[in-house]
Amino acid sequence: MLLPNRVAALQVNRFVRLPGEAIIGAAVLLALPKRPRIALAALGGTLLGALTVVNVLDIGFMEYLGRDFNLVLDWGLLDDAQSYLADSMGKTTAVAAAIGVVVLVVLVLVLMALAAVRLSNILVLDHRRATRGTLIAGTAWITCSVLGLQYAGIPVASDRVGARLHSEARHVRDTLRDEAAFGKEARSDTFGNTPADQLVPDLRGKDMIFTFIESYGRSAIEDPIMAPGVDKTLDVSTKALAKAGFHAKSGWLTSATYGGSSWLGHSTTMSGLWVDNQQRYRTVMASDHLSLTKAFQKTGAWDTVGIMPGVQKGWPEAKFYGLDKVYNAFQMGYQGPKFSWSTMPDQYALEAFQKLAHGKDRDKPLMSEIILTSSHQPWAPIPKMVGWDELGDGSIFKGIEESGTKAADVIADSTKSRQEYGKSIQYSVTALTQWMERYASDDTVLVFLGDHQPIARVSGDNASRDVPISIVAKDPKVLDKIASWNWTDGLKPAHNAPVWKMSSFRDRFLTAYGSTPNPKND
């Protein structure tokens, strides 16, 4: 009844309170005949067991995703969590953990029910004394509540169970209402009816590349442990690109997600809608809302391709993103080892992009969406850069993976996680910018950004949800179009650079490059 749903709240003062629900429960049980009493006690115990499970889920979700568990939407994410554990720690560990969790949940529910029944039986052994004790406890609770008595800053009189049940009911109601409201929002589109010849006319002839770097957040650039190495990489990369004739401008976007669920960040950026839960994601993917990448396909002036090393099953989302061809984890010829969750090093994925799409002769320029995964948690082991001509089928990475830091040595250590996370961001940025130096042409335009901040164990309990975003081009006219954005020159956004909601980027980008608004309202 008193268990908090936050790690930081697991303090002694939270467990020395007087739960009002226990007093009411005792009074009701004392008034009931035997059979109804036992049935109600068992039901109440099971409910408390379920509430305990939800509290623990809240703790886990807050740690990894920066939010509470959603009773309506989040059950499907538990399967993703098991897949992540299998990729990071091995299938045996994942299976054992899944079995252990199921057994533990069943035990919590059963034992809480049995405990409640046992307590009800103890109450009725001495009905008079139990009634007197209940009255005294009720009087004490009312007194503490009226006087506002506290212990170590926490009210002694607790109504946590009732407040929590009310909160969860309200959350479920709001979730169900949001589905209809967001569906209406998704049907309205500022550029939904824009003719093809009026979409991004100022980028015609350019090879467009939209790249998401996994977990690339503000903390990578500003945290005292991660920032020195990452900032140095950004500075070195900015200079190397400038030497090759490329220049960049950078700012900040506030992501719709945190710690994980990268697809929410991807869809928010590309749709121009705030997609912060799985229900909204499903609604957007099933809609005809114009994604930023699909705008290029709609013009008919670009071939479109997706490089998705993290996709390991069917991916119908390709239609929403307007991708003519998608290369998943099994279609890029990689024969090397996985690096925990990441199916292949970013350097290899980028080289595969060059061989499979970018480097081929075409009648049209290419618009590409690339998801880089080497900076996905648990950030161990991390790939190392090798000679681009030595990549081959990826077998060269076997020795690197074997000699790298093991996930088990990092996953529960905050300091090591922060250190390795910083190194993974350095690797991803280096791979991407070196690819630009090696393969990009005068007409290449790169937009790259993070999808979300890393988990709280790395970014901190009070970290923002901001992620860096950069636009890189050789043609000065491309960056001149966004001069009014007041972004920072180079790949490292200044601390006080503009911060926009991630959902605003699509419309700002389309407008900056000459697209004509033609709203669709349904």
UniProtKB/TrEMBL annotation:
<feature type="transmembrane region" description="Helical">
    <location>
        <begin position="135"/>
        <end position="154"/>
    </location>
</feature>
<feature type="transmembrane region" description="Helical">
    <location>
        <begin position="39"/>
        <end position="61"/>
    </location>
</feature>
<protein>
    <submittedName>
        <fullName>CDP-alcohol phosphatidyltransferase</fullName>
    </submittedName>
</protein>
<keyword id="KW-0812">Transmembrane</keyword>
<feature type="transmembrane region" description="Helical">
    <location>
        <begin position="94"/>
        <end position="114"/>
    </location>
</feature>
<keyword id="KW-0472">Membrane</keyword>
<keyword id="KW-1133">Transmembrane helix</keyword>
<feature type="transmembrane region" description="Helical">
    <location>
        <begin position="15"/>
        <end position="32"/>
    </location>
</feature>
<dbReference type="InterPro" id="IPR017850">
    <property type="entry name" value="Alkaline_phosphatase_core_sf"/>
</dbReference>
